[in-house]
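Working notes for the structural subgroup meeting. M.R. asked for a predicted model of this chain before we commit to crystallization trials. I am recording the input and output together here so anyone reviewing the notebook later can reproduce the run.

Input as submitted:
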Amino acid sequence: MSVTAVVGAQWGDEGKGRIVDYLAQRASLVIRFQGGANAGHTVENEHGVFKLHLIPSGIFNPNTRCLLGAGTAVDPLELCSELDQLKKASIDVSNLIICSRAHMVMPYHKLIDLYEERFRGKQKIGTTVKGIGPCYADKSARNGFRISDLFTMDTLAFRQRLEHILKVKAAYLQALGSQTEGSENSPLEDLLNIDNIIAQLQSTAEELLPRIVDSMTLVREAIEYKEHILLEGQLGVMKDLDWGTYPNVTSSNPTSAGAFSGAGVPPQYLSDVVGVVKAYSTSVGSGAMPTELFDADGESLRDIGREYGATTGRPRRCGWFDAVAVRYANWLNGFTTLAITKLDVLDTFDELKICSGYKNKKGEVYKEMPEMHLLDDFEPVYETWPGWKTPTTQARTWDELPKNARNYLKRISDLVGVPFRYVSVGPERTQIVVLDTLGVG
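Returned structure, recorded in token form:
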């Protein structure tokens, strides 16, 4: 039996879906433990190229059950659309199940997300406007709806509760809209109409109701039967609600600690934590990113790596590998190993840089993460490493990687303080080097 958490060690978009897709070939259960449709996992395998937003990346293994855990924010309409896309690609989706305790992203959550982001103006967070933040806010304020509420949509109690909440939301949106340019074109009366909302939810019932389960029983039995379980997170530590670049963060906890409550797995059963990192750094949205590049190297990373958001299509901010941030992620998550992705993106560079520290305006160098609100006052301290100037995409063993690539990977491991086991050299499932753990330790 093994329970492995796969979490992002940077700003998200590290390639977690690619690693989960690989590891899920021997897993019987994959649990998505937080987040919603506000970010995507791109998976490329023998079935094609897929951008998953809600569905766990283990869906391509027909023997793997895929669970949307209690900590997720499930948009019923988005989920049905994603299921339809997979069905059209002849993917068996019968093994997708949903925890009855997962919260629903309601149509008005997207409206609130949009209006709030417009209202922030220059102070905007850079959300995907998928309603995830407002959904989690309602969950905490005890004004949310769980996915199990789909069973009671035709009851008077459900309608009365929704009517009350819609009155509150309408007043809030009208107040925001009266002060927000561009909001006058949004017909709130139609968008907040209770019959329209119930009709939208009812359109998903046939697809989703048979998938709703008591996940506690399912997870407990999987552990008791010593099955292989993967816990899949979304985004990365630097977008964590508590430990990330607040307020430019997501509204949940994509750390290994967040996996326990989001998946319903007791801490003592966690056997491994795989920290997924790119061989460089990327981020989508606003917030501090010390190694961000604004030069030709940054453009090359973006173009070669096809660094555009899977959910929004927005160009990602690109920079050199930030060992300070990943060392910080290691402490918070307790990584047992690293999975380093997109090494091949660096194949054509003459030289590479690794950020080993941050320097403030006084010239003081920090090797550990300072307070997040101070990050804009720091600049990276770089080490320069020679490139390898040869393709790595055909490498399948450690010895087949160029010497300079091996040295670069070892240095990352030394600085972060974690050994690595997986090195991705391309998007396809087979383009991976799997080692006995190398590096620190």
